[in-house]
Amino acid sequence: MQRILIGICGIGNGHINRQRLIINHLLKYDVEIVLAITLKSKELFDSLYPNIKKVLIYVPWIFCNNFGIDFEATKTKYVEDGVDQFNSFLTFSTEVQKAFNGENPDFIMTDYEPNSAQFAYATNKSLICFDQHSKFLNLSSEIINGFSINIEISRLLYFFPRAEKRYVTSFFKVKNSKKFNIEVLPPILKDIKRGNIKNNKAIVYFSPYTSDSSKYIKILELIKNYTNYEFNIYTELESSDYCNYNNLVFKKIGDEFDKDLTDCNFIISSAGHQLISEAINLEIPLYIFPLDTFEQNYFCYIIEKKKLGEKINACNADEFNKFITNIEKYRSNMEKHKKMYWKNKWNEVLFSKLENEFEIRKKVAK
Questions:
Q1: Is residue 332 domain-shared with residue 348, that is, in the same domain?
Q2: Neighbouring residues of 42: CB distance < 8 A, sequence distance ≥ 6
Q3: Are residues 103 and 115 in the same domain?
Q4: Residues 112 and 33 in one domain
Q5: How does strand 165-169 pair with strand 107-111?
Q6: Which residues pair with 6 in a beta bridge?
Q7: Same domain membership, residue 114 and residue 9
Q8: In whole numbers, what is the pLDDT of the chain averaged over residues?
Q9: How many of the other CB atoms lie within 10 Å of CB of 134?
Q10: Domain contains 365
Q11: Are 154 and 80 in the same domain?
Q12: DSSP letter string over 302-345?
């Protein structure tokens, strides 16, 4: 039996959704799992995996600018939070060893969770990274809309300077890299079946991981006028000013989101990797805008370059009408894009590698 520590980033639903899928497949194998999770995620993971041990983590917020780590801003935030990170890490490491009955895990997996990576270095155990961010180590240096790729690279090298393997999931073509131990996977996706498309149905997703709601308000001001559409809006934003519009339906993230994905016509969203990947897989055209990161600006660039949707710039009727007019073209391009880049299922590719390289074995039926 292999002992595995899995570190799960608590920022963003994409990290959690990908790791849930990986954990579900791992449970078919003869492994002992301990999860490293944030307090915010504990209730969810306790409900999903009541029989798996969990260890709590605290993740410091690291600020970056176009030159790399912004040490001054990071120090200011660290002082404001008032958490002793060294003590937090020692407590975490002690609890990990307790969870494994006094032993260390055989190897560590992480989706952008740095405490588990640091534990791997401290115990000289193999680290396997599953974050989608590592692909930026293997892309040309660029500045997009004022954001430098150095932001992503510096944070990656600060948290994860080395890894036995970096299994990188991507919805666009990225090369493998021996230098960074990068092996590219197809997107890690839920098994959602598309039904009949409702032409007047849309999903709107507002990420909770931004303090600037001005873009969200601008979108609501635009779509409230399109009364022939039903906009299913997933947000933590206070929506009292817009609840009286019959075409705006406010919902909480949950199983209903996947149900809405089965028949919606298009998506309005920030440019997160996971939702973009799901949308392309289900051939749902995207009207998207980036949050203030290089990553999301780059993803918007890719979506426009591949003609899979439209980036929100003006956020006005002319731009939105243009997007609606071209929806079927975007859908057709998504179908072609998938056939070109996603030739295998992610779980078949990944678990074949884990079996061969890390010797995990499926449970023997009793």
A1: no
A2: 54, 56
A3: yes
A4: yes
A5: unpaired
A6: 35, 109
A7: yes
A8: 93
A9: 27
A10: no
A11: yes
A12: HHHHTTSEEE-SS-SHHHHHHHHHTHHHHHHHHHHHHHHH--S-
Q: Please give the pLDDT value at position 366.
A: 65
With beta carbons less than 8 A apart as the criterion, state whether 168 and 182 touch.
yes
Q: Quick check: 214 and 198 in contact, CB under 8 A? A: no
Residue 170 DSSP label: -
Distance CA 92, CA 124 (A): 17
Please state the pTM of the whole predicted model.
0.92
**Span 249-258, pLDDT tens digits:** 999 877 799 9
Six token digits for residue 192 = 């959602």
Tell whether 56 is covered by a domain. yes
List the one residue out of 24, 2, 37 whose CA is nearest residue 346. Answer: 24
Domain that holds residue 214: 201-341
Count of structural domains, the chain: 2
Residue 144 CA to residue 176 CA, distance in Å, equals 23
Q: Are 35 and 49 in contact (CB under 8 A)?
A: yes
Which among 95, 77, 136, 80 has a CA at the least distance from the CA of 7? Answer: 95
- 164 and 222 together in one domain: no
Same domain (yes/no): 66, 180? yes
What is the crossing angle of helices 13-26 and 273-282, to 10°?
70
Reading the block at residue 55, the tokens are 């260890």
Q: Model confidence over 270-313: pLDDT tens digits?
A: 999 999 999 999 999 999 999 989 999 999 999 999 999 999 99
Per residue in 151-181, pLDDT tens? 999 999 999 999 999 999 999 999 999 999 9
CATH number of the domain residue 265 falls in: 3.40.50.2000
Assess if residue 112 is contained within a domain.
yes
Nearest CA to 241 out of 216, 212, 275 is that of: 216
What gap in Å lies between CA 96 and CA 75, rounded to an integer?
27
- 257, exposed or middle or buried, with CB in 10 Å at 0-12, 13-18, 19+? middle
Both 126 and 261 in a single domain?
no
Report yes or no on 366 lying in a domain: no
